[in-house]
């Protein structure tokens, strides 16, 4: 399984909105099948970085991207990138649960249906498997026709994870996925991230340092658009190499 | 008198005022239905139901009160207007909310709102100058026709319909759009499968409101439809609607004149149709969208 989840290589990536550079000359590698936590103060470019990986950053008017990003051997940056193919490879989970105003089933089946899957048996199996993978199946079986909005916030977020997994991505981007959730729901999502490890390369932006410590294999610390430090999570948290990292981790910065 | 007592008194006066206003409105509603219903009843008792609602000849002086040409005229004009206006308004709304930069939106809304404020007589006037000659060239005849009325009405309801559709589309949160794109949907797929799907109910509602406006409009229709009381042979032939015929006959059939109450029948038919539309909107509006 491990070799299915691709490495992500970032080379001299810079991103600007208008003439304001929000990411500056970032180079890094995320090993396949691992969880990378991205931490840093607000406005450090974390979310922008995440949105470069699936090119959702294109939606911002006047955005410039320089440099190279590769997911496996798929070139992410460039004018002729097939965004549909990219976004099928690289799924995303957002800060606030954003299920569509449809039924639970239709939410999860949304991606597969886009890909032209119409066979109802196949869709049902896909939906069931995705919900099982997202640890939501036991809570929603028999309620698949209910509106997604009838689920709790934590369930909605796991539904969104199931929805992303139903497209069979190789990479999962998570943008502060638990910031809107209570501690119990947060714990469930963290457990879930641990089970997804290996099968997917996960990039998790988080404001919650304990979360980064609990679930990630690697941690990247960003400040003012620069990648300050990236290393195995244990090392970054116990023996940071940069003073700025240490200051941030000990709460003397922000 | 303490402040508290004073407040209590003000409150009591307020409640009485509100109650009076509500009672007045309810009484007005009953009076409306009552008057029209009574008039229509007297008419039906004297002239029968069949020859009226389903009759083809309308000639009050000769005692012929067939209303079918007007019913068909109203339906045809409304259908033409809605079919022409709806796609146009939807395109306006999609362009304004999804395609053009966000900062243009308020300008577009104001422009559309100012169009929606134009009195219908001005649309009729514009119809005389532009639409009637156009229809004359397209379909022959004088140009005063069911088609001309439908087109003028279409122009008249496009602004209202666009505004309603814009408001509906603005209710679609950005996070649904992003969620769809992030799953590999193209912008077109996102539009069809998330945006339009999630606002189906308000869009249907907007359509019903537009139908109501088209059905109830009188002046703009009367100015271009040609005012003929036979069943129109084609959309390019002149005709009449329930509303335009009421306007036409008010002077012809004053209270006391034989057949005066046919006006009550026409009014009641319109009222029933409108009430049906209102009920329909309420039923759809009752369903939660998001």
From TrEMBL, chain A:
Keywords associated with the record: ATP-binding, Nucleotide-binding, Transport
Source taxon at top rank: Bacteria
Protein name per UniProt: Phosphate ABC transporter ATP-binding protein
PROSITE patterns: ABC_TRANSPORTER_1, ABC_TRANSPORTER_2
Record Pfam families: ABC_tran
Gene: pstB
Organism lineage string: Bacteria, Bacillati, Bacillota, Clostridia, Eubacteriales
Organism whose genome encodes this protein: Sulfobacillus benefaciens
All residue ranges annotated as the ABC transporter domain in the record: 8-249
A molecular function (GO) term: ATP binding
Alphabetized SUPFAM superfamilies for the sequence: P-loop containing nucleoside triphosphate hydrolases
A GO CC annotation given for this chain: membrane
Gene Ontology BP term (one): phosphate ion transmembrane transport
From TrEMBL, chain B:
CDD domains assigned to the protein according to its UniProt record, in alphabetical order: TM_PBP2
Membrane topology: Multi-pass membrane protein
Gene Ontology cellular component annotations, sorted alphabetically: plasma membrane
Transmembrane segments: 16-41, 67-100, 112-132, 144-166, 262-281
Entry similarity comment: Belongs to the binding-protein-dependent transport system permease family. CysTW subfamily.
Protein name per its UniProtKB record: Phosphate ABC transporter permease
Originating species: Sulfobacillus benefaciens
Main location as per UniProt: membrane
Domain of life assignment: Bacteria
Keyword annotations from UniProtKB, A to Z: Cell membrane, Membrane, Phosphate transport, Transmembrane, Transmembrane helix, Transport
Residue ranges annotated for the ABC transmembrane type-1 domain, each copy included: 71-281
């Amino acid at each position: 399984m491990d070799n299915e989840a691709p490495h992500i290589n970032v080379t001299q990536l810079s991103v600007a909105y208008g003439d304001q550079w929000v990411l500056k000359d970032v180079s890094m590698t995320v090993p396949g099948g691992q969880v990378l936590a991205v931490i840093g103060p607000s406005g450090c470019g974390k979310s922008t970085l995440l949105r470069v990986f699936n090119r959702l950053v294109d939606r911002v008017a006047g955005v410039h991207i320089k440099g190279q990003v590769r997911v496996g051997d798929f070139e992410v940056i460039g004018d002729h990138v097939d965004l549909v193919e990219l976004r099928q490879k690289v799924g995303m989970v957002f800060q606030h649960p954003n299920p569509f105003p449809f039924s639970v089933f239709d939410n999860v089946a949304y991606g597969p249906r886009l890909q032209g899957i119409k066979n109802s048996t196949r869709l049902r199996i896909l939906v069931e498997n995705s919900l099982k993978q997202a640890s939501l199946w036991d809570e929603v079986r028999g309620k698949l026709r209910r509106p997604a909005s009838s689920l709790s916030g934590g369930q909605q977020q796991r539904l969104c994870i199931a929805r992303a997994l139903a497209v069979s991505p190789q990479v999962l981007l998570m943008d502060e996925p638990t910031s809107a959730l209570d501690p119990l729901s947060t714990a469930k999502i963290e457990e879930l991230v641990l089970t997804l490890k290996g099968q997917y390369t996960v990039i998790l932006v988080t404001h919650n340092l304990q979360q980064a410590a609990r679930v990630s294999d690697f941690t990247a610390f960003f400040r003012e658009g620069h990648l300050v430090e990236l290393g195995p999570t244990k090392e970054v948290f116990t023996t940071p190499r940069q003073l700025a990292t240490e200051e941030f981790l000990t709460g003397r910065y922000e | 008198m303490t402040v508290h007592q004073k407040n209590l008194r003000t409150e009591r006066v307020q409640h009485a005022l509100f109650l009076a206003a509500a009672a007045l409105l309810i009484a007005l509603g009953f009076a409306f239905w009552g008057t029209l219903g009574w008039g229509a009843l007297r008419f039906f008792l004297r002239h029968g139901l069949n020859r009226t609602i389903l009759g083809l000849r309308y000639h009050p002086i000769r005692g012929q009160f067939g209303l079918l040409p007007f019913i068909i005229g109203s339906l045809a004009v409304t259908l033409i207007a809605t079919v022409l206006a709806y796609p146009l308004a939807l395109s306006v709304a999609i362009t304004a909310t999804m395609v053009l930069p966000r900062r243009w939106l308020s300008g577009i809304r104001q422009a559309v709102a100012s169009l929606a404020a134009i009195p219908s007589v001005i649309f009729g006037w514009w119809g005389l100058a532009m639409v009637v000659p156009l229809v004359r060239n397209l379909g022959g005849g004088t140009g005063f026709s069911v088609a001309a009325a439908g087109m003028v009405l279409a122009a008249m309801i496009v602004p209202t319909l666009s505004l309603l559709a814009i408001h509906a589309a603005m209710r679609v949160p950005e996070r649904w759009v992003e969620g769809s794109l992030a799953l590999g949907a193209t912008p077109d797929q996102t539009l069809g499968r998330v945006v339009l799907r999630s606002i189906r109910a308000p869009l249907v509602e907007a359509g019903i409101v537009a139908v109501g406006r088209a059905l109830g409009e009188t002046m703009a229709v009367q100015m271009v439809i040609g005012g003929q009381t036979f069943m129109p042979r084609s959309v390019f032939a002149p005709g009449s609607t329930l509303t335009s015929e009421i306007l036409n006959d008010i002077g012809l059939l004053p209270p006391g004149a034989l057949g005066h109450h046919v006006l009550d029948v026409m009014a009641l038919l319109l009222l029933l149709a409108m009430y049906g539309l209102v009920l329909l909107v309420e039923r759809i509006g009752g369903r939660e969208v998001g």
